[in-house]
Amino acid sequence: MKAVVFERHGGPEVLRYTDLPEPKAGPNDVVIQVKAAGANYNDIWARRGLPGMQIILPHVSGSDAAGVVVEVGSAVTGIKVGDEVVVHPSLSCRTCEMCTSGQEFFCREFKIWGFQTGPNDGSHAQYARLPAVNIVPKPKNLSFVEAASLPLVLLTAWRMLVSRARVQPGDFVLIWGGAGGLGVMAIQICRLFGARPIAVVSTEEKAQKVGDLGAEFVIIRTKQDVYEEVRRITGRRGVDIVFEHVGQATFPTSIRCLRWGGTLVTCGATSGFEAVTDVRFLWNKQLNFLGSHMGNKAELLQALRWVEAGKIRPVIHTVLPLQEVPRGQELMEKDQTIGKVVYVPDSA
Ligand code: NAP
Predict the structure, then answer these.
(1) Is residue 14 part of a domain?
(2) Are residues 144 and 158 in the same domain?
(3) Strand order of the sheet with strand 2-6?
(4) Structure confidence by residue, pLDDT tens digits, 75-118
């Protein structure tokens, strides 16, 4: 089968479109024919290499896929060849105390599929093997491309806002990267819960798009002062929740933008890990800082119900042939995407 592989860390030039053996299902696995595969920022982290984290080489990236089941392991029940599915990208043992209490992200065996798995175990290929427990039915109202764009960012944004920050009707929510993969989900989740999303973007084109998507307010960070705009929008009160994933470049502003008693929830640090906190704000304003990482399968299923109901829509920036993964990564690294990049293998 064809796949996009890298054997050493570096820029997009280390990615090779090449041939690999097709995966075979173990007793508890399924093999899917990948009809479409999503791009995520973790593809870029893996390719670059991350200090303190082992990326297994050779590596096939890709944590999101939608496809058709072509092989079912001997111990698998309830799934058959021909089923149309999407991937739940959180792998874990499914038997420990953490897994059985719905906290699979705390399992000692927790791995993000296509990021921490390997060698050559991700969705940027014509076929992929997964534990059967890690696939869920494709929402019927979505194409494969649309479905492949969703799981990782939908799951992450849902957990951040719903399970962790407990977004409430009327909450002002400051959403960094409003036109990014996470951002387009966060805006829609806020609307679903009756909250008031304030999306931050870098261009007029992105501002238009996030407005269409439901952002009640939009701040163009390259032209406007985010803190001053937040004060104006909220009547000097500050926001109830900041949706963070940018890290170093935005963290101090995020803290300033919070209302007294407000909540910052973060899952990432695209701009750098060393985010500075003036701890006086933390205690004096009695702020809540919450970390969040991926989510559990139930959270994905809950969120997908709203997708099937048409209340959360995929946002696709572009669809590229699988061999153009380097181009997709470049678009993301240059912040040129509005929504998601999706790759389609030749045979799909
Ligand atoms: P994305 O689609 O590339 O969007 C990121 C957005 O961040 C961009 O659209 C950009 O928007 C904004 N941005 C980048 N640099 C910025 C800066 N210096 N200041 C302000 N805004 C900036 O990526 P994504 O899929 O949304 O993921 C975002 C981050 O979250 C990544 O680091 C990813 O690894 C992480 N993440 C973590 C988890 C988890 O579970 N832990 C899950 C998903 C993603 P503008 O240029 O328009 O402002």
Answers:
(1) yes
(2) no
(3) 16-19, 2-6, 59-60
(4) 999 999 999 999 999 999 999 999 999 999 999 999 999 999 99
Please answer whether residues 140 and 77 qualify as being in contact, where contact means their C-beta atoms are separated by less than 8 angstroms. Answer: no
Residues 41-57: tens digit of each pLDDT: 999 999 999 988 999 99
**Where residue 348 falls among pLDDT bands split at 50, 70, 90?**
confident
Supply the DSSP string of 172-189, one letter for each residue: EEEETTTTSHHHHHHHHH
Model-level pTM? 0.98
**Pocket mutation for ligand 1, best pick of 50, 115, 182, 342 (most atoms within 8 Å of C-beta):** 182
State in Å: Cα 38 to ligand 1 middle: 15
Distance (angstroms) between ligand 1 centre and the Cα of 267 equals: 10
90 lines ligand 1 (CB under 6 A): no
- Both 8 and 118 in a single domain? yes
- Say if residue 282 is in the same domain as residue 143: no
Q: Are residues 158 and 287 in the same domain?
A: yes
Q: Which of 106, 115, 270, 329 to mutate to test the pocket of ligand 1 (most atoms within 8 A of CB)?
A: 270
